[in-house]
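Practice problem 4.
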């Protein structure tokens, strides 16, 4: 059995977390013969696979070598959003003058207390993903240890051989690090280690302007770190619309984040307690002297130790290869989540796991390509997106009509003092069919669901226009998109026709 991982700092919250997701006294069960489903990896995809299959009456084994709950619970969604919420509280406390709240500028940040709150919340939520809950309440045989294929229908863990009718590879991915000279020697943080901090770094360099880099850069800047964010591309959040990213860049500049766009890190030099990050930007070299470096440049699949070749499973550097029904090259083995998906989100892993259950255990023919995948970057304001972007539509040769409503035209956004942002839809030209949407707002992730439902259910923008939205809410921006579309339909010819009709009605 694998030795339990070391969680830092050693406090009661992390003790609770470890007791739930990697208990030291855990005794692996005996193999229960041939399983309907053996799942390797107890992150989101694996947990949903195991719980869903067991709930339907399947005999299920679940294998985890590290922490149950995976990235989302332990080093991803849960701790990062706890920090983001605390950073918003810091920001709002300091900027209450606009609302007549005086004195917030003098508020102080207790970083150890912020981190303790995060660990407490994470520990509390870990009960849902605990080994004992899955074994005692859900009826899953939970094995803690290294799982590896020993044949096309067998997996070994802790000296036990588990035979399966079907198996699911759900081992996820981990933070990747760029090959920058001196970086490893200097030491660096990733999303897997940053949540173990107990002291705020006075100076922080963030390498990577994607979602993780942007979210944590803003949070640490609001806590009081002097943050420099280095992005190789010309804009932050490269897959988002340029004007959406520009809003975040403006906000970051206002909040003191030093942005180095179109930049390349040449090397990192360690000088006593300092790290010197040498950055090439344009024609010049910039040297940043910092206390800590946070790397957020992508994910690498967790393939090591699985012995996939013994199971007849094809993989490459991007992960396990699957078809549209999530089958691997071994028809008895499926995969879901970050190990095989280009969309590395918790909600995508959950959705794929449900497809896996239907296709692996039953004669299902559900397709991963049919999923409508939204995403949200939890900066302030947030950027939420679903469906096609303008660039993707152009690349696919799809003619679109784009409608945009600025938040400055929405009463509730004006009242809240949150007018930086917009709601946007891309419609198939000549119809109200929604092909894609972007919302930039403080709670954009909460607003996007209506548009995601419309795309999934085949509802046009006209249906949203007929839906009464409570006033005043920022979600009125979505309804205003429908109003704008209706106005665009009112062509000069139709206006003359309606005007003539109404003139006749006055007689």
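Answer key:
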């Amino acid at each position: 059995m694998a030795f339990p991982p070391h969680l830092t700092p050693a406090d009661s919250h992390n003790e609770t977390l470890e007791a739930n997701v990697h208990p030291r006294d855990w005794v692996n069960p005996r193999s229960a013969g041939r399983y309907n489903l053996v799942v390797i990896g107890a992150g989101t995809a694996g947990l949903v696979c195991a719980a869903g299959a067991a709930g339907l009456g399947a005999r299920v084994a679940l294998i985890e070598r590290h922490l149950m709950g995976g990235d989302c619970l332990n080093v991803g969604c849960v701790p990062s959003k706890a920090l983001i919420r605390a950073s918003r509280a810091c920001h709002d406390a300091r900027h209450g003058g606009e609302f007549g709240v005086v004195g917030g500028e003098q508020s102080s940040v207790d970083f150890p207390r912020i981190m303790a709150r995060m660990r407490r919340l994470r520990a509390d939520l870990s009960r849902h993903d605990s080994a004992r809950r899955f074994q005692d309440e859900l009826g899953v045989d939970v094995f803690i240890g290294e799982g590896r294929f020993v044949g096309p229908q067998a997996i070994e863990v802790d000296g036990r051989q588990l035979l399966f009718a079907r198996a699911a590879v759900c081992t996820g991915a981990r933070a990747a690090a760029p090959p920058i000279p001196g970086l490893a020697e200097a030491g660096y943080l990733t999303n897997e280690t940053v949540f173990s901090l107990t002291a705020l770094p006075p100076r922080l360099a963030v390498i990577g302007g994607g979602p993780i880099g942007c979210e944590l850069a803003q949070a640490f800047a609001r806590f009081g770190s002097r943050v420099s964010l280095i992005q190789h591309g010309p804009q932050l959040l490269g897959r988002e619309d340029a004007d959406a990213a520009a809003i975040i860049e403006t906000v970051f500049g206002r909040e003191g984040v030093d942005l180095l766009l179109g930049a390349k890190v040449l090397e990192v030099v360690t000088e006593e307690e300092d790290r010197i990050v040498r950055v090439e930007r344009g024609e010049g070299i910039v040297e940043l002297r910092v206390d800590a470096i946070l790397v957020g440049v992508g994910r690498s699949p967790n393939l090591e130790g699985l012995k996939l070749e013994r199971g007849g499973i094809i993989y490459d550097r991007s992960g396990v290869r699957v078809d549209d029904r999530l089958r691997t090259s071994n028809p008895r083995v499926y995969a879901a989540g970050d190990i095989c998906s280009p969309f590395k989100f918790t909600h995508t892993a959950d959705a794929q796991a449900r497809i896996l259950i239907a296709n692996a255990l039953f004669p299902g023919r559900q397709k991963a390509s049919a999923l409508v995948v939204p995403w949200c970057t939890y900066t302030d304001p947030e950027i939420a997106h679903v469906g096609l972007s303008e660039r993707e539509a152009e690349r696919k040769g799809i003619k679109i009509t784009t409608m945009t409503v600025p938040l400055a035209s929405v009463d509730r956004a004006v009242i809240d003092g949150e007018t930086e942002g917009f709601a946007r839809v891309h419609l198939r030209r000549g119809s109200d069919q929604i092909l894609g949407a972007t919302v930039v707002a403080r709670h954009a992730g909460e607003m996007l669901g209506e548009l995601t439902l419309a795309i999934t259910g085949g509802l046009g923008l006209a249906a949203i226009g007929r839906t009464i939205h409570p006033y005043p809410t920022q979600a009125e921006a979505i309804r205003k998109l429908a109003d704008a579309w209706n106005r665009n339909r009112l062509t000069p010819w139709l206006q003359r026709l309606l005007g003539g009709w109404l003139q006749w009605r006055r007689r």
